[in-house]
């Protein structure tokens, strides 16, 4: 993949989701969107969609069999979600830091200003998702944005954007 051997200042892509608990509340949706803008992510693509249960099952298949799996699938299919392709230096790690820990009790204690610490309702209804590695970002971006060519973006657009003052 074109991300290999990239220079230190290069931009990285990640997939971010705003989950149904946050999309349902306009002020929370706006606050999360503002976090994206104020941290100078480039919004490369964005869409809102309603997931089918089968889509959620496929996306979270690694958790199949765990006690929260069924709850997670039902929740993620319960209302619209918003999906973003975001670009930034170290976008994957930066977005995950802004989200905060997975579990809300922990998020409220160790990262109270994080998105999950501020807005998470429960361990499942925790406001946002972010890819956790380069390979999962690539896979997840392809799942949500099948018409988007990551290779072309890294080859043609990233070199033109990396010195843009907003990055
Ligand atoms: P993350 O979303 O932080 O990458 P995971 O991949 O481990 O975390 O989990 C995927 C999602 O499953 C979480 O965002 C959360 O919605 C749900 N989840 C994870 N762990 C639990 C748990 N212990 N109890 C309830 N829901 C959970």
Quick structural summary:
With 167 residues, the protein is α+β, with helices and mostly antiparallel strands. The chain is built from nine helices and four strands; from the N terminus they run βααβααβαααβαα.
Description:
The protein has 167 residues and is an alpha+beta fold. Strands 2-3-1-4 form a four-stranded antiparallel beta sheet. The longest helix is centred in the first third of the chain and has 13 residues. It is globular and about 45 Å long. It starts with 11 loop residues before the first strand and ends in a 6-residue tail after the last helix. 32% of the residues are buried. The site of adenosine-5'-diphosphate has 10 residues, from loops.
Features:
alpha+beta, globular, four-stranded antiparallel sheet, 9 helices, binds adenosine-5'-diphosphate, 16% strand, 46% helix, 167 residues
């Amino acid at each position: 993949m074109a991300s290999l051997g990239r220079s230190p200042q290069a931009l990285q892509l990640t997939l971010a989701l705003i989950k149904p608990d946050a999309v349902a509340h306009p002020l929370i949706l706006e606050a999360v969107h503002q976090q994206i803008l104020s941290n100078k992510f480039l919004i490369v693509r964005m869409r809102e969609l309603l997931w089918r249960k089968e889509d959620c099952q496929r996306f979270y298949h690694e958790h199949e069999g765990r006690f929260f799996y069924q709850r997670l699938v039902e929740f993620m299919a319960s209302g619209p979600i918003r999906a973003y392709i975001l670009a930034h230096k170290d976008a994957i790690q930066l977005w995950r830091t802004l989200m905060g820990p997975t579990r809300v009790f922990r998020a409220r204690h160790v990262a109270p200003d994080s998105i999950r610490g501020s807005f998470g309702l429960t361990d499942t209804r925790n406001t946002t998702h972010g890819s956790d590695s380069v390979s999962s970002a690539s896979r997840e971006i392809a799942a949500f944005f099948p018409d988007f060519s990551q290779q072309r973006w890294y080859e043609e657009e990233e070199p033109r954007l990396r010195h843009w003052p907003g990055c």
